[in-house]
Specification:
Blueprint (H helix, E strand, L loop, with lengths): L3 E4 L2 E4 L5 E3 L21 E2 L4 H4 L2 H9 L7 H11 L24 H22 L3 H10 L2 H7 L7 H15 L7 E3 L3 H5 L4 E3 L7 H6 L2 E2 L18 E3 L2 E5 L2 E5 L2 E3 L6 E3 L4 E9 L3 E7 L5 E7 L1 E2 L6 E2 L4 E4 L11 E6 L9 E2 L1 H5 L4
Antiparallel strand pairs: 1-2, 2-3, 4-7, 5-6, 8-11, 9-10, 11-19, 12-18, 13-14, 13-17, 14-15, 15-19, 16-18, 19-20
Helix pairs in contact: 2-4, 4-5, 5-6
């Protein structure tokens, strides 16, 4: 499979290339309280049939730990791990202290995988880290939770890459930080088409996230459309562009050049400049920590530091940067982090139906 994972006191690759003993503290749990009270996890999307058919098993095992709302993430993890094509469907043998693929049936693999995820979730709660740290820990091992806890408590791809390069890879012999090409839609969207030898997969969160339709901003009904009607010409997620499959970071509104663009909520302008890909773009940070980005504008009406109100005209639709016609490219993220892991589906946030 994709990468190195740390379960219990053993590091394994999911490709079976090497095995080495490293001590990582993991505390399995018997029961736990609801661990998602602070964050939604969205819903599953594009999960293959070979994984979806086991959904009732994921629900049953998740109920044991009161984490039923994490079932979409568990199925997304499974999609990344095996796509449902192996009996050890969650690649969870290692978490039970067994050699890879020792578990030979899907129900037992799900039971063990959910148990391990629940344990990592409990450790994450105690450390105050976010849910994406838990997801990355499914690849790196639970020691990643402590690493993130000491560095801001929120997973970012920068932290994941540093952990891969500086902790995992050296522990397994790659002391020079040697890399190899790793090219797919996710790594290219992150601008880092490589991995570190023996370093796990620092893109893991984004690989999982592409199978989730995020709903974290439920309750922020105050967001408004930047353009109306919402003439959506390209949706969030994977798409084919020029015959190549790519990850689209936002949604595109096809409107005539010069159409006024409205701020979707109150906030402060943190960027108003030109970018080779986005062209003229504006980025606004909102009171709840979310950010919105408006790209390809023919002109920007605001500058960095401006306080804007919901509905203020912040720019006009254009065709600047890497664009094939007049439109607004809108991104919404959970923080200033511009990586794919922080992105939300703007259609979900704004209540736009496909």
């Amino acid at each position: 499979m994709l990468a190195l994972k740390a379960f219990g006191s053993l590091f394994f690759t999911t490709g079976g290339l090497f095995l080495v003993f490293i001590f990582v503290s993991v505390t399995m749990i018997v029961s736990m309280t609801n661990s998602s009270k602070d964050e939604g996890v969205g819903s599953a999307q594009n999960i293959p049939a070979d994984v979806l058919k086991w959904e009732s098993y994921f629900v049953r095992e998740a109920q044991k730990y009161d984490i039923v709302d994490h079932v979409p993430i568990l199925m997304a993890i499974t999609t990344v791990e095996t796509g449902g094509r192996l009996p050890d469907i969650m690649q969870s043998s290692e978490s039970a202290g067994l050699p890879m693929n020792t578990i030979d049936n899907e129900p037992d693999s799900i039971a063990q995988g959910v148990k391990h995820y629940a344990s990592a979730l409990q450790l994450s709660e105690a450390a105050g880290t976010d849910k994406w740290t838990v997801v990355q820990a499914y690849n790196f091992g639970t020691s990643y939770i402590g690493y993130v806890s000491q560095r801001g408590k929120n997973h970012t791809i920068d932290l994941a890459e540093a952990y891969s390069r500086d902790v995992v890879a050296p522990s397994l012999g790659n002391v020079l930080g040697s890399t190899y090409r790793y090219v797919n839609a996710v790594s290219e969207a992150n601008g880092r088409p490589y991995l570190y030898w023996n370093g796990g997969n620092f893109h893991y969160v984004d690989l999982v996230r592409q199978y989730l339709s995020q709903g974290e901003v439920g309750g922020n009904e105050g967001f408004i459309l930047p353009l109306s009607p919402p003439n959506i010409t390209s949706w969030f997620g994977m798409r084919i562009l020029g015959g190549v499959e790519q990850f689209h970071r936002g949604i595109d509104f096809g409107h005539p050049q010069g159409t006024p663009i409205k701020a979707i909520a109150d906030g402060v302008v943190i960027a108003s400049e030109y970018h080779n890909s986005w062209g003229n773009y504006v980025r606004i940070e909102h009171a709840n920590g979310y950010c919105s980005l408006y790209a390809h504008n023919v002109s920007n009406n605001v500058k960095v530091g401006d306080q804007v109100k919901q509905g203020d005209i912040i720019g006009h639709v254009g065709n600047t940067g890497n664009s094939f016609g007049a439109h607004l490219h809108l991104e919404i993220s959970t923080s200033r982090d511009l990586t794919a892991a922080s992105l939300l589906d703007p259609a979900e946030v704004l209540g736009i139906s496909r």
